[in-house]
Amino acid sequence: MKFTAISAISLAVVLTGGAAVAQDREGWPDSFTVGTASQGGTYFAYGSGWANLVADELGISGGGEVTGGPMQNMALVHTGDAAFGMTTMGPAAESLAGTNPIAPGLEMTGACAIFPMYQTPFSVTALASSGIESVSDIPDGARIGFGPAGSTSDTYFPQMMDTLGVNYDRRNGGWSDLGGQLQDGLLDVIAFAAGVPVPAVSQLEVQTDVNIIEFTEEEQAQLLEAFPVSSFEIAADTYSTLEEPARSVSMWNFAIAGCDLPEDFIYEVVDIVMSDNERMVNIHRAATSTLPENWDKNTVLPWHPGAARWFEENAGADIADDMIGG
């Protein structure tokens, strides 16, 4: 059988899923990175997972990159040093306003929202042997690990502890490192803002007895009044240590992309992530909230045009024109 020009075109259509798809890939990147956070945290596990999923589905090289977390991710995506990143609404608002501590005065308008991820609960963990069972039990001058410098934890949790009247010695580091320091007695408390279950806390549970400390109703009310957070309960089945839900507060996370990336490329990325939640939950349990209907939790960032089109076509989203970037 002759392998004609027509046959070659037909084969190309089969391999790409259609001639339109092949044409749409003009201008697409050959590779990409997703700015996550430190190893041992939810951002790294979740971000690396969806990066690998997208890379496999689109046949493009891609993966997660260790970063300092939401603030740095906003900067990396704004400058084009990373195609994608992950951020929380608080750091996103600060970055747009030009108050990101990484680049004070720079309004990071080059980063656009592409899909909702999950809520980040603020949770406190101590060794059971410490006797710390509540926030009020934390002794004056306690050595508290707040996560990587510039992360959501490091940006907001010290302020929260100030609000709750806790006096502390502030420490920073990667999630895995801080978990190890707590176990070795080098820290008294770790205060994590991360999707649950936090891998470092789950690892601690396997190795030693820990207390996962909830906020009292009064403490929760204080934080809700003072910070851009929502009420949250850490489900009892999140950690083996918990016997009942733990009262907390949380902040929404969104995936971000460079606003100038091709619209069709971002549409396909969003479609892969949002069209099969089971695959995302298999990557990380926090993805139970990675659902189309949560598009409206973004009240801060401009949407990438490709993402806006996906949510308008598939989730009935009504996104105002002035909330679409690019």
Short description:
This is TAXI family TRAP transporter solute-binding subunit. The chain is an alpha/beta fold and 326 residues long. It has 2 domains: 159 residues, D-Maltodextrin-Binding Protein, domain 2 (3-Layer(aba) Sandwich), CATH 3.40.190; 132 residues, Periplasmic binding protein-like II (D-Maltodextrin-Binding Protein, domain 2), CATH 3.40.190.10.
* CATH homologous superfamily (4th level) name of the largest domain: Periplasmic binding protein-like II
Show unreliable segments.
1-23
| Terminal residue distance | 49 Å
CATH architecture of the largest domain: 3-Layer(aba) Sandwich
Number of strands: 10
CATH topology assignment of the largest domain: D-Maltodextrin-Binding Protein, domain 2
**CATH top-level class of the largest domain:** Alpha Beta
How would you describe the overall organization of this protein?
This protein is 37% helix and 21% strand. It has twelve helices and ten strands. Strands 1, 2, 3, 4, 5, 6, 7, 8, 9 and 10 form a ten-stranded mixed sheet that branches. Helix 3 (42-58) crosses helix 10 and helix 10 crosses helix 12. The longest helix is centred in the first third of the chain and has 17 residues, at 42-58.
Properties at a glance:
326 residues, D-Maltodextrin-Binding Protein, domain 2, 2 domains, ten-stranded mixed beta sheet, 12 helices, TAXI family TRAP transporter solute-binding subunit, signal, TRAP_TAXI
Topology:
Blueprint: H1 5-16, H2 19-24, E1 31-35, H3 42-58, E2 61-65, H4 70-79, E3 84-88, H5 89-96, E4 111-127, E5 142-145, H6 152-163, E6 168-171, H7 175-183, E7 189-193, H8 199-207, E8 210-213, H9 217-226, E9 230-234, E10 246-258, H10 263-274, H11 277-283, H12 305-314
Parallel strand pairs: 1-2, 1-3, 5-6, 5-7
Antiparallel strand pairs: 3-10, 4-7, 4-8, 4-10, 9-10
Helix pairs in contact: 3-10, 7-8, 10-12
Organism: Pseudoroseicyclus tamaricis
Protein name: TAXI family TRAP transporter solute-binding subunit
Keywords: Signal
